[in-house]
Amino acid sequence: MEAGVFGLGATEFLVIVLIAIFLWGPDKLPQALASLRRFISKARNMASNAAADLSREIGTDIKPEDLNPKTFVRKHILTEEDQEMLTNPLKSTMRDLESGTKPLKDELDETTRGVDDARRNVNGQRSRNISRGTNGSSAPAADSSSSERTAASYDDVT
């Protein structure tokens, strides 16, 4: 999808314009857009002033995107060494966890492949039997067992 005006695609922008025309009418729409522009301008000025005040109080250069608490702490309070000290135990624990669960994951993957292969084999045999109209013999099947009917109903779901 292409990003058009304000990160919106052409279709989304057109829908918004049509809704705006419907809500305010073509004669009041320019006034509504001017009010929206003034509101956005005031909001930007307020954010810039807040960031400038905070920068002045703390003594560091703060941008509006730095006002996210996680970003602020990471950028202005923690040093590189502090970050490494906090993340290294988590990284080593994660590596230990991954290495400890790898055999279980491999076993589960192998079991899943076996179940999938068995399901394909059963489905393939059943479809051949159904297409021949037999239960594996040359005579037509009189009635299939309840387990085959149940298995066939599971095929419809899977």
Automatic annotation (TrEMBL):
Residues 83-158 are annotated as: Disordered. It comes from the Bacteria. It is a single-pass membrane protein. Residues 93-120 have a biased composition (Basic and acidic residues). Pfam families: TatA_B_E. Residues 137-147 have a biased composition (Low complexity). The keyword Membrane applies. Residues 122-136 have a biased composition (Polar residues). GO terms for cellular component: membrane. The chain crosses the membrane at residues 6-25. InterPro entries: TatA/B/E. Its main location: membrane. It is found in: Membrane. Keywords: Membrane, Protein transport, Translocation, Transmembrane, Transmembrane helix, Transport. GO terms for biological process: protein transport. This is Sec-independent protein translocase protein TatB. It comes from Glycomyces buryatensis.
